[in-house]
Write a structure and sequence with these properties.
Number of strands: 10
CATH topology of the largest domain: Butyryl-CoA Dehydrogenase, subunit A, domain 3
Shape: globular
Low-confidence stretches: 127-131
Strand content: 15-25%
Distance between the termini: 29 Å
Number of domains: 3
CATH class of the largest domain: Mainly Alpha
Strand order of the largest sheet: 1-4-5-8
C-alpha cells in the first residue's frame, strides 16, 4: 500500500531517507559490530536534532504533534540502513510519557534535548523466558525501592535510565530507574547489538520518578508493549525490503548456464512471493499505526504486526542468502548483516509464535 501522505509526512520520509543513508548502511553497521560498539552516537545525535523522538508527542507536551504512523515511516528507513540506535524504544517511551502530563515534563525535556536516553525495561517473551517476573517495589523512608531482574533489555549500556514497570501489591507502577542504581550483565547478539540483564537490589526510585500507578500504569504499560511491537515491525519491513532490493540487483547480473539468474522462472517466483509479503507487511504497519493514531486501535493488531513482520523478515532474508549463492553465507557479504539483524529484531519484544498466541488471546 502506498499511502497518501501529507506534506509534513512526505517531508519526514524524505528527510529519513537522507539521514539514514548518510549515517547508516552495512559498512557502518559492520564497523560498529567489529568494534563492539552498542550504539551509533553520531547517528543518534542527528535523530535527536531532527526532533523525531517526540514526533508522536502532542504539541502541548512539547512534541511535533504527529503520530506513530510518522515514526514508522522513519523507522522503515532506519531498518533499511541498519541504524544501531534506540529510535523505536525512546520514541515509544516518549509517546507514553506525553500521555502522563506535567509529571513527565522533565523526562520529556531531557529526551528532546538529547540529555537522556530512556529505554523501556519490560519483561519480554520470545527469548526463552516466557512469563518473566515483574520487579517488586517497596516504600520505605519516603522513597521507593525496586527488587528484581529484567532480561534482554536493548541499548542498556548506553542508556542513562530505564522505564520500568514494577508491582506494588496488586497494582502496577511505572517509574524511571537511573542506570547507576542497577547492575548490568550484557551480551552481544548475532548482529552486533546487545542484550542486557538488569539486576535491581533495592534500586532507589524517588517520588518524582514515579510516572503512574494503578489502572493508569497498567494502561500505559499495555500501550508501550503495543508500540514496541508496531515500531519493531516497521523496522523489520525496512530490513526485508532492502534485503530483497539487494537480491534483485544481484540476480540481474549474476549468470549461470549463460543466463542471468533473474531469467529463471523459479527464482522469479520466489522473488515475487517475497515482494508480495513485504508489501502486505508494509500495508499492515501503515494501517495499524494510522488506526492507533486515530484512537481506534485493537491491541490484537499490534501483535499481528509483530508476528507477521517477524516471520516474513526471516523468510525473506533466508531467501536472499540462498539467492546470493555461496557468497551470501560469507561474513564478507553485506546480505548476511540483514539476516542477522532480522534474527534479532524478530525475537525482540516477542517473536512470531509469541505474538500469534497473544493475538489469539486478545481476540478470543
Amino acid at each position: 500500500m502506498e499511502p497518501i501522505l501529507s506534506e509534513q509526512q512526505s517531508l519526514m520520509r524524505e528527510t529519513a531517507v537522507r539521514l539514514c543513508k548518510d549515517h547508516g548502511g552495512p559498512k557502518r553497521a559492520r564497523a560498529l559490530r567489529d568494534s563492539g560498539t552498542e550504539m551509533d552516537i553520531p547517528a543518534w545525535m542527528e535523530i535527536v536534532r531532527s526532533g523525531w523522538l517526540l514526533a508522536a508527542v502532542s504539541e502541548e507536551s512539547g512534541g511535533l504533534g504527529m503520530g506513530m504512523f510518522d515514526v514508522c515511516l522513519a523507522l522503515e528507513e532506519a531498518g533499511k540502513q541498519l541504524l544501531m540506535v534506540p529510535f523505536a524504544e525512546v520514541a515509544s517511551v516518549a509517546h507514553v510519557l506525553g500521555k502522563i502530563g506535567k509529571r513527565a515534563e522533565i523526562q520529556l525535556r531531557a529526551i528532546q534535548d538529547g540529555l537522556q536516553i530512556l529505554v523501556p525495561a519490560l519483561p519480554q517473551e520470545g527469548w526463552g523466558n516466557v512469563g518473566s517476573a515483574i520487579p517488586a517495589a517497596r516504600f520505605e523512608g519516603g522513597a521507593w525501592y525496586l527488587d528484581g531482574t529484567i532480561r534482554h533489555v536493548p541499548f542498556a549500556k548506553t542508556a542513562q535510565a530505564y522505564f520500568v514497570a514494577a508491582t506494588v501489591g496488586d497494582e502496577l507502577m511505572l517509574c524511571v530507574v537511573l542506570k547507576h542504581l542497577v547492575t548490568l550483565n550484557t551480551v552481544h547478539n548475532v548482529d552486533g547489538s546487545t542484550s542486557s540483564e538488569l539486576v535491581m537490589n533495592g534500586a532507589l526510585v524517588e517520588e518524582s520518578q514515579v510516572m503512574a500507578r494503578g489502572e493508569m500504569a497498567q494502561t500505559l504499560t499495555d500501550c508501550l508493549y503495543d508500540l514496541l511491537a508496531i515500531t519493531s515491525g516497521a523496522a523489520l519491513v525496512g530490513v526485508s525490503a532492502m534485503a530483497l532490493d539487494m537480491t534483485l540487483e544481484y540476480i540481474k547480473f549474476r549468470q549461470q548456464f549463460g543466463k542471468a539468474l533473474g531469467s529463471f522462472q523459479a527464482l522469479q517466483h520466489r522473488a515475487a512471493d517475497c515482494f508480495v509479503d513485504i508489501e502486505l507487511n508494509r500495508s499492515l504497519v501503515y494501517r495499524v499505526s494510522a488506526t492507533y493514531d486515530a484512537g481506534e486501535a485493537h491491541r490484537a493488531m499490534a501483535a499481528a504486526v509483530k508476528s507477521r513482520t517477524s516471520r516474513v523478515a526471516l523468510a525473506v532474508t533466508r531467501n536472499a542468502l540462498q539467492l546470493h549463492g555461496a557468497i551470501g553465507y560469507t561474513d564478507e557479504h553485506d546480505i548476511g548483516l540483514y539476516y542477522k539483524r532480522a534474527i534479532t529484531l524478530a525475537s525482540l519484544y516477542g517473536n512470531d509464535i509469541n505474538q500469534a498466541a497473544r493475538f489469539s488471546a486478545l481476540t478470543l
